[in-house]
Amino acid sequence: MTVLETLLSGQLLFAALVTGSLYALIALGLNLVYGTMRMLNVAHGDLVMLGAYGAFAAFTLLGISPLLAAPAIAAVGGLLGYGLYRGIFRKILAGGSSTTAVRLESNSLLLFFGLSIILQNATALAFTPNNRAYNYLDTVYRVGDVAMTGNRLATLLIAGTLCIGMALFLARSVLGLAMRAVIERREAAHIVGVNVDRVQWLSFVLGFGSAALAGVLVSMLGQFSPFSGFPFTIAGFIVIILGGLGNVMAGLLAAVLLGLIETYGVALTSANMRSVLLYGAFVAALLLFPNGLFARRAAAR
Amino acid sequence: MKFPKTSRRKVVGGITAAMLALASGTVTAQADKPLRIGFSMARTGMLANATPSQLNTYELWREQTNARGGMNVGGTKRKVEFVIFDDQSKPDQAVRIYEKLITDDKVDLLLAPWGTPFHLAIAPVLEKFKFPVVGNTAASVALRTVKPGYIWFPTSAIPDRIGVELTAMLKSQNVKSVAVLSNVLPFTKEIKNFLEPELKKAGITVKVTAEYPPDISDMTSTLTQVKQANVDAVLALAYPGDSVLYAKQAKELGLNNPLHFVAIGPTDAFFAKAVGATSAEGVVSIAHWSPRAEWKGSQAFYDAYVKKFGEDPDYLNSALAWMSLEILETTVAKTGLDKEKMRAMISSTTFDTINGKVKFDGVQNSITPTAFVQTQKGKLQIVWPASLASSKFEAKKGW
User: Fold this and answer.
1) Which partner from A130, A226, B310, B351 sits 20 to 30 angstroms from B76, CA to CA?
2) What's the whole-model pTM score?
3) Which residues pair with B262 in a beta bridge?
């Protein structure tokens, strides 16, 4: 393939969009929790993995279509987030003084790290560490010269719709505005009467729920094991650093950009360059745009 | 805050007991001195998903042996008890565990861990304590650099032999051009290094050659090139972690090459479940075993495994694990637990296993030939070499 052929290939564009939309959905939840509480959820990828197992169990044990099970799995993920917030994180957050705020970051990191280990090993106990995968929606559709497997098409549509829906929610609804207010100026939002506690638990619910849902999509595409969550955490990190920590909208764009960089970069060089490209983009963004690729100058402090 | 009064000793004791129970994996009633057999296994970490087919085989053997009244140790039957530790997918951890098993737990026998790097890592420990172990799931030319003595490798799936035999098989199918895709992990990379010169010697054109990292999540760009090259055979030197991705995307892009070789994955039961029976049909892979009448016990092993675990054993790793147990059992029945006598017997005897006769020349099995299997009507059949074949190769008809 010549360079031009590569750039014009519809097949690659499709692959880039599938990857990008999945990254966007995964990074979205990570960013919400970070944005509202400044807590980096290192267990985020494990929630994706958990969602994948949920879909796998529903499909193989109960015979339920993963897409039908998806809302329930997302709800369980959200409930887990709610429980964790109520049970653990709110108590730590309630501390108040500035020293605890500093300690909070390290404590929450440790807590999430512990959660990650517990989730991995609990899943290994429940499902064995075997590779798991199943076959669903594997009809191949052809549009022009682009071939699309049903499950990849579904991933693109669902992840894309959810991300756009989320963007609209944040831009238009009162609750979404409150959420953005807490992300941008936490204290000020509190003073003008935003119910910070509610925003925080809601972001936990949405963050965990969207991760579990992303897991359902991931489970249809390839195989997974109890230990395959970590790469998703990393991908999520790269996306939210590219977009700007806490900047949810920019994160969505950054995810698509990353999908494009990865797919076309690999096509033009070699698959071995994937990590170099991903981390290269990451380091370049940190050096050139420390506040994120899409940071508004005025917002830069 | 007041806590209910529980003495610290009780708590510590309880935790220790629980950990011991977890670590040993088996809590048997005190029979008169059970035989303690130790090993490490990757139960967590990056390789944990590859080990169940081996661990299951060990468990099945223990269950059957104990049901027979125990393992024959130089004439007396003794119940078997496992001492298992998790090496967290780290070879250096396995080294410590085997040292501990020998010096601290003082186990009676040792079984092999999973995978080449682990076998290589523990070889010096075995040498140091003169403790013989029959290896199983290890395959690399590097194994030959291990000093013969206390470890043996029954596999014939050694990369240089795979290079030669795979090329011969392709020749026999009149293949003129191939695409070689390789995961950069050691085993597949090694196969690639030995395979490409062999292909060249045989006059087979390598039209596409590509490598990819283990964490690949999309193969569209590579497989698009493969499709355009229109080759007679695609040789995907994949690991279990990416074999499914390869099959799913080969289907999406409609790769209609008549021969698809996928190095590791298709011999494990999960593969066909993951990609669907039609996609798995016709894929060629590495294994030198299949249940057959002339290999005594092979069908019985297959049936027992399927009955206990509800899926097929891995034709490579489960079979190798079982062979290593058979060799150990035959030896110990004769020699008892005398390590030097064990070593002498393993080094010089021709053993009957579910994979036919096995004899070690140095560290290597000198009898079993390198072979390939193909999924035909949902069953794995040996299609190469002709001397072992249980069926003829059939061209793959789409995904």
Assistant:
1) B351
2) 0.84
3) B236
